[in-house]
Each structure stands twice: as C-alpha cells, then as structure tokens.
Amino acid sequence: MTTRETTMRRLPGLDLLRAVAIVWVMLFHSYIVGGIGEHFAVLQDSGWMGVDLFFVLSGYLIGSQLLKPLARGEPLHFGNFYLRRSFRVLPAYLVVLALYFLIPDFRESPGIQPLWQFLTYTVNLLIDYDHHKAFSHVWSLCVEEHFYLLFPLLAWWLMRKPSATKFISLGVAIVLAGMALRGFIWLHELAPVQNADSDLFGLRYVQDIYYPTYTRLDGLLAGVSLAALEIFRPLAWQRMQRSANTMLLPAGFALFGFAVWLFRDRTGLLPNVIGYPLLSAGMALLVAAASTPTCWLGRWRIPGVEGLALISYSLYLIHKAIFHLVEMALTPSIQQHALLTFAIYTVASLLAGTLLFFCAEQPFLRLRDRLRRKKIVTTDEATALPVEAP
C-alpha cells in the first residue's frame, strides 16, 4: 500500500479510493480496541478489503510506471526503480519498526516476529500468528515488496517479445493457480480442523491463505492489467473512459457488491477460491472509473481527502499501535461510548500519521527528487536490460 505517484495528485478519484481504503482498514482494525459498535458491523467486518483496494491501486500505478517506457522501446532501469522504491518505502517503515522493537509498550500485542523477518519482508510467509500478532499488518507491505522485486523482471521478460496472447495467458494462469492453491490449502489444511478446533481453523486461514504472497496476487494483477490496457490498447481504454459513468461504475459496484456478499462467510471455501479475483476485478473497474476525469468519481473533490491519501502509508503503518496507546490512556467511563472512543482513536492516529509523514516520508521524498534533479539517482546502464519495441 505504499505507492502514490504524481498521477494521483492530478486524479482526485484515485485519492478518494486511497482515502476510502485506509479508513476502511482502520475500521477493520478497530476490533483490537473493542470495535465501533454493532451498527457499523458490516463496515468493520469487511474492512480487510481495503488492503485489496490498495493492491489494485499499486498494481495500476507501478504497472504504468514500468510499462510505459517499455512500450516506447526504452530499456528498463532496474537499479533506478529499486532505489526510488527504497526512498519511498523504507524511511517511515524503519522508524515504526524501531518503535516496535525498542519500546515494547508501543506494540498492540506482546509477541512479535524476529527482526530479521521484518527486514527481509518474510513476515507474511513465516508468521506465527498465534503468538506474534504485533505489527502483523506489515504482511501487506511484504506482498508489495515481493511485487516490486519480481514484477520488473517479469515485465522485462514479457516485453522481449511482446504478445497480447502471452500476457493474457500468463494472467489467466496466475488467477487459476491462485484459485487452485487456495482451494487445495482450504481442503487439506483448514477443512480437517473446521469443526474440531475453531481457533486452529482461524489461525491456519490467516497464516496459510490470507497472508502469503502466492495466494494474494489477484489485486496486483488486476491493477497491472488496467495499466497494460491503458498503455497497449489506448483505443479500447478511451472507449472505456467514455462509458465510465454508464458502464464501468455500475459494473464495478455490481461485481464488488457480489464479492462482499460472497465474503459474508469470509473463511468459507467458495469465497476463498473465487472471491478474491471477483473482488479484485470489481475494484479494478472502480479504479479505471476513478482515473477518468470525465467520470463523476474521477473528478469528485472532497475536502481533506487528498491529505488523507497523502499520509495513508504512514497512517497504515502506525495506526494499530496508536489504537493500543490510546486505549491504555482512556478511562473506563470514556471507553463505554464506542463512537466517541473511536473518534479519539481516529484523531490520535491522524496526528501520528501526519507526524510520521512529515518527519520521515517527506524529507526522503524531497531528497530523492533533489538527487534526481542533480542526476545522482540516474540510470545505471549496467543494470538496464534492453527490450524490443512492441
């Protein structure tokens, strides 16, 4: 959930979706402080889908960033890409990670995975969720880091001999493989304990299906597919844009609504097999509509949304710890009022996220821009592999 390129500053619709995603995730994580009341149970219970929306946005924006030069026949500069991602991701992440390991009371849960797993982005593959829940939401950052690492190589390979058939076949294969893998894991790991041990069932669901990168590629793939369509099939993309209000939005909301309905049993076999690609497809249609200036979603400017989108990465990293710290500070009489309590949690998280953004994220983003202007962060020709023009 870390990508926010300059494109978003010109497209308020994408800012809106990013703001929706982070608020939704915060609602979901409110369970660690008792939730926000039964009247908002639907929003709270489905808030995990905000991460999938982040995945679709990241796939679209990173896909566009990498595929555009490749479409022009330019070499792909791996070193420059990875350096830019490091400037974007690491500063705020390392600050929060230091707080988690240096100040135990900062943690929303006592147990935490070993430091080396956070530094190597392997938490989502090795986590012992039963004993180490602290900073576990970093699983989504691990998924994105794996995407950043592997997708440039995949994009370079695909563009050596560009082919729509090859791209579509690979995409379909990834979706089908994910469906088959989740189904296999559910039947062989979850089903045997479904009725015998509900706690073990939930634990295996989180560790074996929900967190691993290889089971959560649908959103990123949907976003990359949008980017590829926009770049390599501009006429089709323009036709979609012209019908954004009449086709993209209705279809996107319909597919998204069906996925929400399907996931009412979040840990069931059917939603875990087909639910993720359906959810990602619906969200991709909404992202396509939001990136269209002629669509009402793409031009809807709401005060505060751009700022919320701007700090969304910092907010995502720190909000669970802030929830925990505020809960420790609140008196029992205040905690009896769910909405008031959550309002306090929200304000505290916004302040912490804003502070983290301005103290950690923004200075390094400015440094990155200065280095680029001075041509210090430049293309390393030794790491640039040539590609054939499409």
Give structural notes.
The chain has one domain. Residues 2-9 and 376-390 have low confidence and may be disordered. It is mostly helical and 390 residues long. The chain contains 18 helices and 2 strands.
Q: What is the compact description of this entry?
A:
The chain has 390 residues and is mainly α. It is 71% helix and 1% strand.
Topology, pairings included?
Elements: H1 6-10, H2 12-29, H3 41-45, H4 49-71, E1 76-77, H5 78-102, H6 115-119, H7 123-126, H8 139-160, H9 164-190, H10 198-210, H11 218-232, H12 234-242, H13 244-262, H14 269-290, H15 305-310, H16 312-329, H17 332-335, H18 338-373, E2 384-385
Antiparallel strand pairs: 1-2
Helix pairs in contact: 2-4, 2-16, 4-8, 4-11, 4-14, 5-16, 5-18, 9-10, 9-14, 11-12, 11-14, 13-14, 16-18
Main beta sheet: 2 strands, antiparallel
Number of strands: 2
Listing every helix as H and every strand as E from the N terminus to the C terminus, the arrangement reads: HHHHEHHHHHHHHHHHHHHE
Domains (count): 1
Radius of gyration: 21 Å
Distance between the termini: 30 Å
**Coarse shape:** globular
Class based on secondary structure composition and strand pairing: mainly alpha
* Overall helicity: over 70%
- Segments where pLDDT lies below 50 for 5+ residues? 2-9, 376-390
Widest sheet: strand order?
Answer: 1-2
